[in-house]
Design a protein that fits this description.
By secondary structure, the chain is α+β, with helices and mostly antiparallel strands. Helix content is 32%, strand content 13%. The longest helix has 23 residues.
Length: 540
């Protein structure tokens, strides 16, 4: 057992109102620079819908994530080293700008400079790439609130086996909101797809970042990520992605999307997991077993044996204590009401979701039952407007049994707390039917409904003794086009991040400050040796 710590997130989809506040604040904080106009590290999608970029969940087309060989071993769905070398200058699995959208602004100046006339002046949309007038055809939330559902919703890959059912019942249209950020996976395919070793997963907190100095702009990370949460900045030639607001996390603060969330639907905390069990869990043969396989990777922070191993692994004591108080662990492992997004991608994502529970009472009355009978309420779950099969395609690789179990627990939560408010006696049979006690239900209620700020966000601070090491890992924002462009860097780790070796090989190699040799394909003369092309020395 090799214990490691991961900062994770759980979102309660029942509380998301689709206000996009998280998207806007993330945009203002991280992607307000030139070249990042189309990037949305955090976006909120209406489901059913095609998502952003368009149909990103169709891995038959984009080939993101992992798959199993005939021998049961993991391999990248987009292919290994040989295929990357053959397609390094043309990647057929890379989404185009049309799959995202061409960013635009409006010609507001025309409103104030237009001459007098009988017609009102208008602000025409202009491309932020070319500056020319354009016709708007797509955007990051183009089909928000089912606006384009009759035309576009059926293209949702999650409806591939539900098309007839949803088409027949479309008068009873259903929708819910799905906020998305980078999943910061335990088995990230973007990291494995990067030829230059620029993508990496931090050992101290599990956050996946891009080293801007090492990035060569090959964009295999973009196609390798099945969630399409890695973007390419055409101004800098570098890949960028959600950073999980690591400067805030290091100081014990929540991510900016969590801090500004109107619905208070996000929970942050520490998870302890067995790093030695990750590969076996991701290699589980049956996709429907991947959810339970990932649960088996997580460790109980209250277990003395786990605590002893965590101490030996160098995990600080306050991090272990934070894992014990973690709302994320409670929702994922203890109560088992949170689920991973598309576990069939085999990346073992660490941003989990509590599936939405439709208005149960309305469904009960619609099928002729009375809500006083709990068994009738459970029967109504199968008749909810959001099909169980659709939620299962999103969160459990098609296993509707897990979805039904989670929705039953959420239904019992509502029924029990309603009875408590009305002074009704505790229904022991109702609680037993979902394997919970009254204490379990009330603990879940406190976490989901009335948890205070420091109960929703349990984030330990980074230790000062590791500051120097962490600084060297930070992704510099001082690259061309960055927030600090033109400003002097105050840390030597950002100025002297790379020291070049003598140009005896045509400038194709360089050394990091730790002395490890790297290979620069852009500086290769085509005839000299090409060692460490895929970071072989780094992996030793």
């Amino acid at each position: 057992m090799r214990v490691m710590a991961q900062v994770a997130m759980v979102m309660n989809l029942d509380k998301c109102i689709g206000c996009h506040t998280c998207s806007v604040t993330c945009k203002q904080t991280w992607t307000s620079r030139p070249g990042s106009d189309y990037m949305w590290f955090n976006n909120v999608e209406t489901k059913p819908g095609v998502g952003y970029p368009r149909r990103y969940e169709d891995q038959q087309q984009w080939k993101g994530g992992w798959t199993l060989t005939r021998r049961g071993k993991l391999k990248l769905k987009a292919g290994g080293r040989l295929r990357k070398l053959l397609t390094i200058f043309y990647n057929p699995d890379l989404p185009s700008l049309e799959d995202f959208y061409e960013p635009w602004t409006y010609d507001y100046e025309h409103l104030t400079t237009a001459p007098l006339s009988d017609s009102f002046p208008s602000a025409h949309p202009k491309s932020q790439l070319t500056g020319r007038d354009m016709v708007l055809t797509r955007g990051p939330n183009w089909d928000d609130d089912l606006a384009g559902a009759p035309e576009h919703a059926m293209a949702d890959p999650n409806l591939h086996d539900l098309a007839e059912q949803v088409r027949m019942e479309f008068e009873q249209a259903f929708m819910f909101y799905l906020p998305r950020i980078c999943e910061h996976c335990l088995n990230p395919s973007c990291v494995a797809s990067c030829p230059s070793g620029a993508m990496y997963k931090r050992a101290e907190d599990g956050i996946v970042l891009v080293d801007q100095d090492r990035c060569r702009g090959w964009r295999f990370c973009v196609s390798g990520c099945p969630y399409k949460k890695v973007y390419f900045n055409h101004r800098t030639g570098k890949a960028e992605k959600c950073t999980f607001c690591y400067p805030r996390i290091e100081s014990g603060q929540p991510t900016i999307c969590s801090e500004t969330c109107v619905g208070r639907l996000r929970h942050l905390g520490v998870m302890l997991y067995d790093a030695d069990a990750v590969l076996a869990a991701a290699s589980t043969p049956d996709e429907k077993d991947l959810y339970e396989a990932q649960l088996s990777v997580f460790l109980d922070p209250d277990d003395p044996a786990v605590q002893a191993e965590a101490d030996r692994a160098g995990i600080a004591r306050d991090w272990i204590q934070a894992a014990q108080r973690s709302p994320v662990y409670a929702l994922i492992k203890r109560h088992r009401v949170a689920l991973p997004l598309h576990p069939e991608y085999r990346t073992l994502p660490m941003v989990w979701y509590i599936p939405p529970l439709s208005p149960v009472t309305d469904a009960v009355h619609a099928i002729g039952y009375h809500d006083d009978d709990p068994d009738r309420v459970f029967a109504a779950i199968e008749s909810l407007r959001i099909p169980l099969g659709y939620l299962a395609n999103l969160f459990t690789a098609g296993d509707t049994g897990v979805i039904e179990r989670v929705l039953r627990k959420l239904t019992v939560l509502r029924t029990h707390m309603r009875g408590q408010q009305l002074g009704d006696p505790v229904d022991a049979d109702l609680l037993t039917s979902v394997g919970m006690t009254a204490e379990d239900v009330e603990d879940l209620y406190r976490t989901l409904a009335i948890a205070k700020y420091d109960e929703r966000y349990v984030i330990p601070r980074v230790h000062a003794e590791g500051t120097g090491r962490l600084q060297a890992q930070h992704c510099a924002v001082g690259y061309p086009g960055g927030a600090a462009d033109g400003a002097e860097h105050t840390h030597d780790t950002l100025v002297d991040a790379i020291s070049r070796v003598p140009a005896t090989d045509g400038g194709s190699q360089f050394r990091d400050t730790d002395g490890r040799r790297r290979f620069n394909l852009l500086g290769w003369n085509g005839s000299a040796p090409a060692p460490n092309l895929f970071g072989e020395e780094q992996r030793r």
